[in-house]
Amino acid sequence: MIRRILKKLLVFLKNFSWLVSALLLWASFPPMGEKLDSFFALAPMIFLSRQGDAKKSAIIWGLNGLAFWIATLAWMVAIVKNGGPWPLVVLGWFALSLYLSLYFASFGWLNAKLWRWVRLGGYYRRLLAILFAEPILWAGLEIVRANFGGGFAWNQLGMPAINAGFSAPARIGGVALVSALVFLVNGTFASIAERVVAPLFKGRFQVNVPRAVRSIETILPVLLIWLIFSISNPKLSARSNEAKTITIAMIQRNFPCTFKSQEENPIKVYEKLIDEIAMWRPDLVMMSESAMSEFGDVNSQNAQYFADYCAMRANAVSILAGGSRVDREDNLYNSAALYISKRAMQEGASSRKRDIESLQIYDKVHLVPFGEFIPLDKTFPWLKRFAPVGSCSSGVEKVLTLPDGTNFGCGICYEDTDSSLIRRVRLDGAKFFAFITNDSWFSESVEAQQHAWQAVARAVETGVPIVRVGNSGVTGVVLPEGEISWLSDEKGNPIVDKQATMVTRLTLGTYAMPAYVKLGDAPLSWAFAILMLIMLATKLSGFIQFRN
Prior knowledge:
alpha/beta, Nitrilase/N-carbamoyl-D-aminoacid amidohydrolase, about 15% strand, disordered C terminus
């Protein structure tokens, strides 16, 4: 009886496993946030792809990916209530989901081809595939997704693990390495399932695992994961003797994204929030992306006057706030400005500590396609009318400098998902990162929580603290070890869609520069490229032999 029920259950999983995997993977991310689900969500899919039917594997993996991305990107429809035309929003939502599902389908096809090769050889091929080839194949496709065509590095497989505290490997291989390890765990569960299921179906599943070495498939992945965690433990990093402490205040104003429905006087709102942080006499006050939009360009006199007034009222040294600016050639930029208060300027000049720039501007480098620009809109100007905020131009990488000489990096909106960009700014000398975003475009949705998860990976990868301010949320601090401190309510939930403030004291220069900052994704990218070449050479070799 039990055997019959188990068989029926396995048949159901065999036919509908794409739905089970999609549901489990979706549940790993907000709003559910069941982070540990990611460690076994893909196991049924891996089980199927190992049977070697490339076409079927690609279809089922593609359906799995499509279901997952449609569900996890459902927050995109929230932009409709902020003026987005619903036909274009829905079309963009499904088009992006379909594009991202192609990476799932590609993995399913490639992995099935890989396992055809595995079954033609000895048991060592199976071990190589489980321990290295499958995880590298998945991580490599994630790296391609994060960089190709501007990239969409959102909700990688390793992100739930990083936010659950299993973040140390990101110090040596970034989120892609964590994704590879999570996939390795999924693959181990799939291997166990293969050994259990195959005898029940009497040859319907092709599994050739010698009894004497079955436990190796479980022991070796555990040892490999333990080894990587051991060498990436942040406690093994050399501590710096240049540690210093700074005080940073964060203001989450919760203003509407288009300013059309603003009912309160913005100055009065800021005065109320600033008065909550004045007693801390912060070195830096952070406001969100677009915070200066009501006062003109970030380099306008009105914006500078307002920033200096805020600094004076907050007893602060400097203000960081986002907005836009137009240069002399009428190029539009999404920018952040660092305003040094007049008091700090005078103190710096009198003590002759250093030359202080009263205004430093960072122009966003990684723009959002179809949000901040339309592809080819510089060649075909008529396309600019379809960009929601206008056709923006890209800036250049740079660090900003506080009056005490502390360099820090700034990331605007989607830039906190760009590991390569953040890593390069860290190499330029950034001691911490200030991320500012305007998530009110997707207010009353789960987008803010998903977005905040990305910052955790950047802190671990770079080995420096991340301070994040989101209009409408999520606001808080992430330490280099991955420790998270969000601005939260009494139940511990991040505060979103509400006005709030937070103050933190950061100790900088705690750890040495992680290996990932120096190497980036190059090791995994090369491993992926070599794997693709080997698979191509094997395919060509088999084709030539067949022809001969």
